[in-house]
Design brief:
With 805 residues, the chain is mainly β. The chain has a single domain, classed as Beta Barrel (Maltoporin, Chain A), CATH 2.40.170. Helices cover 5% and strands 57% of the residues. InterPro entries: Beta-barrel_TonB, Beta-barrel_TonB_sf, Plug_dom, Plug_dom_sf, TonB-dep_rcpt-like. Residues 35-146 form the TonB-dependent receptor plug domain. It is found in: Cell outer membrane.
Length: 805
């Protein structure tokens, strides 16, 4: 079927946008490199595609990237990405960049992920995602990829954008951006956002509030340019943890009776403000309305200069000063109230004349908890009220010198770089255990001892607190990293190129962790309070390692090409490994990654297919379980993993009014050699088991309609995620799930547009994770009918009005 002429023009433009898009991530050099010329897998999320997807978080934005399994069910920050079968939580396998510079040197810096300190807004124009490839040669802590958020650039004419977004969860948000050239080559840009929002899972208070503002100033001059950017983030977002779920007789997993699985959360008004007693008798105010609160000032300077033809010198510097308070209500364990009372029966001995234990509500002490059917479930949660404080300062600088050597009809584009980073961090933590009932916005419970007539003779808990100070930490440290890298792009013919890179990196860290002791303040709730001794354990350690990569690209036609790459890389330990344990003995994690890809683009369809192989060595595990007496940590284990997979990314445009986008990943992620004998002498053999929370299949289809002369765009994103497992033993299954998201755009004219979104259209209860506080080697939830897990956020609606001028 022949395409109409206007459809051909639109399709041709789309093709050009695919293969002719300039890629700035994962390479250096003197010239530009297009997607057709890259020797690695790269996904572009362009401006309008990003706006239609309208991700609510950094993690959510990665749903359209093949090879990535993402978890965004925790809210706007604190997501997880697992890339190409690498079983590392948070952002431990990929680096986050803004304008080519790390947002945070280590994006998995122990309780501080990179997505916690970065927010998407309209100052970001597009995203480039490198999967594997040369990312580890150019960036630290990027073994499986790099995600680059590319800011909007000021053009040669003034332009501006303003957008208002409202949502059914109390969301009101404004975004803006303004760019103005002036004077002799100067360009000024400014923008940001501000929003308030209760939250899709309403905690009973305003969950998300704050925003950010940035100003950039730059100038182009003969043979060079410089840019300076200042950004201030002052924002708080709620952190959603797991909720009580149950496997019913029909085999389906839904929330327990009395709890809304789509929109409910354990956190609520009664746990919003809790005064905790510390070992010195002082109060510690736990304020969950702050959630993950980030106050960050970031300075970025970029300089580029070409002193003579063929030579380019670049320097990129970033300094950030970040204060983070990370508060959350964690459902450490779930049990029936009757079971809890049985386990706590020993407390009766401390109350003369008492004959029984009861649970009563803190705010209504005359109300006795019905252990058989309270809230329709008779369950309680032993919850952790955790407060973590982390001030961090970082200085990072990346200096590059590139030169293009011409030899007859061949060329070498060689780059030599030096990267420096210095990080200083303080770390403090104080947590208490609370007794909670099981309902939306759970209420605090007191454990009381009563006589035969039901009269209260004594309280075991203190205003719902079962145990004060079950966690306590006080630490500080610093880290310095030096890295040298060399890269060569050898253009052998017009169609064939070889790339090679090597990176040597060394980190040195030192610091101190205060030693702990337990004190008894004379009540059951204060009988085992952790605190500091005033003495400090110190550490002073260093690691270094060499990594390398080699790739080839053969562009044998204007529409087709092949590439192949092999990378031997690593991830060095970081300051985050020591913040709670000065005696930590982290090891260098090493990886080997191979990929072979095919790329094709035409007016009718695009197809990018990549076969990949990943071997990850020395993945660390620590079995952590939380019981009535707090945290029990078993000894750490290490294992290797291997994953063989295929990534597909494509688009089909049969007619001008319809198109179909596709991303898919099929893989076999396995543990290799994971066997160990536990302290009881029992042998555990998990060799060949499926990696934690990594699906074997992942598919995303996005059919779209372009109507009314392309003024109206309607699209439906369908996602299918295969089954996963909570632990290495594969004893707790997370079933496969489907989810639909709808988005639309209508252009009134060239200036005014309206966007509409329905997230989780089918109200899917797809489980993204289980309860990590019940162990990741062998989960304590194995065989349980009722358990803690975290499903997708429920259905929500948003509407946005955007004006460009």
């Amino acid at each position: 079927m022949a395409l109409p002429s206007h459809a051909q023009e639109a399709a041709a433009a789309s093709t050009a946008k695919q293969l002719d898009t300039v890629i700035v991530t994962g390479r250096a050099g003197t010239g530009v490199r297009t997607k057709a010329e890259t020797s690695y897998s790269v996904t572009n999320i362009e401006e309008e595609a990003l706006r239609l997807q309208a991700p609510t978080s950094v993690t959510e934005a990665m749903k359209s990237v093949p090879g990535f399994w993402v978890e965004a069910s925790g809210g706007e920050a604190s997501g997880n990405i697992r890339a190409r079968g690498v079983p590392v939580d948070g952002f431990g396998s990929v680096q986050l960049l803004e304008d080519g510079v790390p947002i945070q040197h280590d994006p998995a810096l122990g309780y501080l992920n990179g997505d916690q300190v970065f927010r998407l807004d309209e100052t970001i124009e597009r995203i480039e995602v490198v999967r594997g490839g040369p990312s580890s040669a150019f960036y630290s802590n990027a073994p499986a990829g790099a995600i680059n958020f590319v800011p909007r650039r000021v053009g040669d004419t003034p332009e501006a954008l303003a957008k208002l977004t409202v949502g059914d969860d109390g969301l009101v948000r404004t975004d803006f951006w303004y760019g103005q050239p002036f004077g002799d080559g100067w360009k000024l840009g400014m923008g940001g956002f501000f929003r308030v929002e209760d939250g899709v899972r309403d905690p009973g208070f305003r969950g998300n509030k704050g925003g950010q503002f940035r100003v950039s100033l730059g100038r182009e001059f003969d043979r060079g340019s410089f840019d300076f950017d200042i950004k201030r983030l002052d924002d708080s977002v709620v952190f959603y943890t797991g909720i009580p779920m149950r496997t019913y007789a029909d085999g389906e997993i839904r929330s327990v009776p009395g709890f809304d699985g789509n929109h409910g959360t354990v956190a609520g008004p009664e746990t919003a403000f809790v005064r905790m007693t510390t070992a010195d008798g002082e109060d510690y105010l736990f304020d969950n309305t702050r959630g993950t609160e980030v106050k960050r000032t970031q300075f970025t300077a970029k300089f580029e200069f070409s002193p003579v033809e063929g030579w380019t010198l670049r320097d990129r510097l970033r300094y950030n000063d970040t204060e983070t308070q990370r508060n959350g209500v964690f459902p450490n364990s779930l049990m029936s109230a009757a079971s809890f009372l049985g386990q706590a029966s020993g407390a009766l001995a401390g109350v003369p004349g008492a004959t029984a234990l009861q649970l009563r509500y803190v705010t209504t002490p005359g109300q006795v908890y019905d252990t058989a059917w309270q809230n329709g479930n008779g369950l309680i949660i032993l919850g952790g009220l955790r407060g973590v404080t982390m001030p961090v300062t970082e200085l990072m600088n990346d200096l590059q010198s590139s030169h293009r050597f011409e030899f007859s009809e061949q060329s070498h584009d060689v780059t030599l770089g030096y990267y420096y980073a210095h990080i200083e961090e303080d770390f403090g933590r104080y947590s208490s255990n609370a007794l909670l009932d099981v309902q939306d916005n759970a209420r605090l419970l007191d454990l009381v001892a009563v006589d035969a007539s039901g009269n209260v003779l004594g309280k075991i808990t203190d205003h719902g607190i079962w145990r004060y100070g079950y966690e306590w930490e006080n630490a500080s440290g610093e880290q310095t990293t030096h890295a040298f890298y060399l890269d060569d792009e050898w253009q052998i013919t017009d169609a064939f190129r070889l790339d090679a890179g090597v990176r040597w990196e060394k980190m040195q860290t030192e610091g101190r962790v205060e030693k702990r002791k337990q004190v008894n303040l004379g009540t059951p709730a204060t009988s085992q309070v952790w605190t500091g001794t005033g003495e400090f354990a110190t550490y002073d350690d260093s690691f270094d390692k060499l990594g390398w990569t080699v790739g080839a690209n053969w562009q044998f036609g204007g529409q087709s090409g092949l590439f192949a790459r092999y990378t031997s890389t690593n991830r060095l330990p970081s300051l985050g490994n020591y913040v709670t344990n000065a005696a930590a003995t982290p090891i260098i994690q090493t990886m080997a990654l191979g990929e072979f890809g095919y790329k094709f683009s035409s007016p009718l369809f695009d197809l990018f297919a990549t076969a990949f192989w990943t071997r990850y060595e020395n993945v660390g595990f620590t079995n952590t379980r939380v019981g009535l007496d707090g945290i029990v940590v078993n000894e750490a284990r290490y294992a290797d993993t291997r994953t063989l997979g295929l990534e597909l990314e494509g688009a089909w445009r049969p007619v001008d009014w319809f198109d179909l986008g596709l991303t898919a990943t099929v893989q076999d992620p396995q543990y290799d050699g994971l066997t160990y004998t536990d302290s009881a002498g029992k042998l555990h053999d998990y060799d060949g088991n499926q990696l934690i929370r990594v699906p074997k299949t992942s598919v995303r289809l996005v059919p779209g309609l372009n109507l009314l002369g392309n003024r109206l765009r309607l699209q439906l994103a369908y996602e299918r995620q295969g089954e996963r497992f909570v632990d290495t033993a594969n004893s707790v299954r997370l079933p496969a799930y489907d989810v639909f998201n709808f988005s639309s755009r209508f252009e009134f004219n060239e200036h005014l547009s309206v966007y509409g979104y329905i997230d989780n259209l089918d109200n899917s209860l797809g489980l993204t994770e289980g309860n990590p506080r019940q162990g990741e080697l062998q989960s304590g939830d194995a065989g349980a009918n009722t358990f803690i897990a975290r499903p997708l956020l429920g259905r929500s609606y948003r509407l946005a009005l955007m004006y460009r001028f």
